[in-house]
Write a structure and sequence with these properties.
Layout lengths: L1 E8 L8 E6 L2 E7 L5 E6 L4 E3 L2 E6 L18 H11 L5 H17 L2 E9 L6 H13 L4 E7 L10 H11 L3 E4 L7 H18 L3 E5 L9 H11 L6 E5 L8 H14 L2 E4 L1 H7 L15 H6 L3 E4 L16 H11 L5 H10 L2 H6 L15 E4 L4 H7 L3 E6 L2 E5 L5 E3 L6 E3 L11
Helix pairs in contact: 2-3, 5-6, 6-7, 10-11, 11-13
Length: 430
């Protein structure tokens, strides 16, 4: 007797007609036509069964705060940072936890079950750290929340930030963060990278830096990050987030930099929705898109993942917690519209994100935790095209969310019937 049996699913690797059986919170079997009774049987009918979505870059302390205390009129990164500075004195632990819980509800409904959030630790009260630690514990039964100690106002630029980062790590934040391009000088930015990597090595923690989130092609702190990663033996434990300056670099230097990133085993997280919104704001025409060189990094073997970054906060007025929306934007702006590129974009919001933040036991395999999402789509490419509806969300064998398939009933004379958007995949596309 199985606890749950999902029958007739398509898996991301292309296998079709597969049954997935769950027992004791783990995947007990994956095979065609599994025999046996189950407490619940779900007919997938050829739809895609995927590991849960992963968001490797988010700001949970700011989420859902849009309009507090005012709106970002220019839409720029710097006004967003200034606006966040105005909001910080008004923040309470209770309000941040409540907004975080509401966002996590939305995330779970979208099949998003793992999030790495950067936590601003520039305020001496460290209310943000306190709130996010409480939130992490409250959502632990149904969502993995990793917390980055992020000196938003600069590790050296902001008075007291060095001590505040240490205090926040002592409180229990999980990852060492930073923002070297926001320091006063390139020299201080490079020094902050060295210091933050040293702290991570001493504490045995991962590193995740906002790095070169700029249109300035001379913002090259990721070069220092790659070197310090090797020097401190942190390979595989370091993420360079954003890297938007690479969009504006000359091709010769970028080719050198991509090789260094690969050599250091850095993970890269691009944030398509935010990168193309906040970058290029000083341009008239042509306007730069601003996102880092995703296809080139992937071609060099670098693990590239996509993050949502913001949802309805001082930097971004939109967002829905939908990682397929993130992938959908990425394939347009990269561009990555080949069949191979589209499949790679799906990996960037699932398996690549899991690798970037070091998730253990992630994926569809016998013996792994029974955590997965059933999508109203035939395959990963269709899932991105449709931003497919999540029909079933399961974590450790427990159903967390359900939804009915999206359909419309027509009343057009001679064309009556039900339209299912997921039935429109061209057969020739495979």
């Amino acid at each position: 007797m199985f606890d749950l049996l999902v029958a007739g699913a398509t898996l991301p690797d292309g296998r079709t007609g597969m049954d997935v059986a769950v027992s004791g919170g783990r995947i007990a079997a994956i095979a065609p036509r599994i025999e046996g009774e189950a407490a619940e049987r779900v007919e997938a009918a050829g739809r895609l069964l995927s590991p849960p979505f992963v968001d490797p870059h988010f700001h949970m302390d700011a989420t859902l705060s849009l309009g507090l205390p005012r709106l970002n009129r220019s839409g720029t990164l710097l006004e967003g940072i200034a606006l966040w500075g105005e909001l910080k004195p008004l923040l309470t632990v209770e309000a941040m936890v409540e907004r975080g819980l509401r966002y996590c509800d939305l995330a779970v409904s979208q099949g998003l079950l793992s999030i790495r959030s950067h936590v601003d630790v520039s305020d001496p009260t460290l209310r943000t750290a306190e709130a996010m630690i409480e939130l992490r514990e409250r959502v632990r039964p149904y969502l993995d929340l990793q917390l980055v100690a992020f000196p938003q106002d600069g590790y050296y630029r902001s008075p007291g930030a060095v001590a505040l980062l240490a205090r926040s790590l002592d409180m229990g934040l999980d990852v060492v963060g930073g923002i070297p391009h926001f320091e006063r000088t390139m020299t201080e930015g490079a020094a902050s990278v060295e210091a933050l990597c040293r702290i991570a090595a001493e504490r045995g923690l991962p590193v995740d830096l906002h790095c070169d989130e700029s249109d300035d092609p001379l913002s090259r702190h990721v070069e220092t990050l790659a070197a310090e990663t090797v020097r401190h033996g942190l390979q595989g434990r370091v993420v360079g987030s954003h890297l938007t300056s690479m969009h504006s670099m000359d091709n010769y230097y970028a080719s050198k930099l991509i090789a260094l990133i690969g050599e250091a085993g850095l993970h890269v997280v691009a944030n398509p929705l935010i990168n193309i919104t906040l970058q290029g704001r000083h341009d008239t025409y042509p306007k730069r898109r601003g996102m880092t060189r995703v296809p080139e990094l992937m071609a060099a073997g670098v693990n590239v993942a996509f993050g949502h970054d913001c949802v309805m906060d001082p930097w971004y007025a939109l967002g829905s917690g939908d990682m397929l929306e993130v992938a959908h934007m990425a394939v347009h702006v990269a561009p990555m519209t080949s069949r191979e590129g589209l499949r790679a974009a799906f990996d960037a919001v699932t398996v690549n994100g899991a690798r970037a933040i070091g998730l253990a036991g992630y994926g569809l395999a016998v013996g792994a935790p029974a955590s997965f999402v059933l999508l109203q789509a035939a395959d990963p490419i269709e899932a991105i095209r449709l931003k497919a509806r999540r029909l079933l969300v399961v974590r450790d064998g427990k159903v967390l969310a359900r939804a009915e398939p999206q359909t419309s009933r027509l009343s057009i004379p001679g064309r009556e019937g039900v339209v299912d958007p997921s039935s429109y995949v061209p057969h020739a596309a495979g």
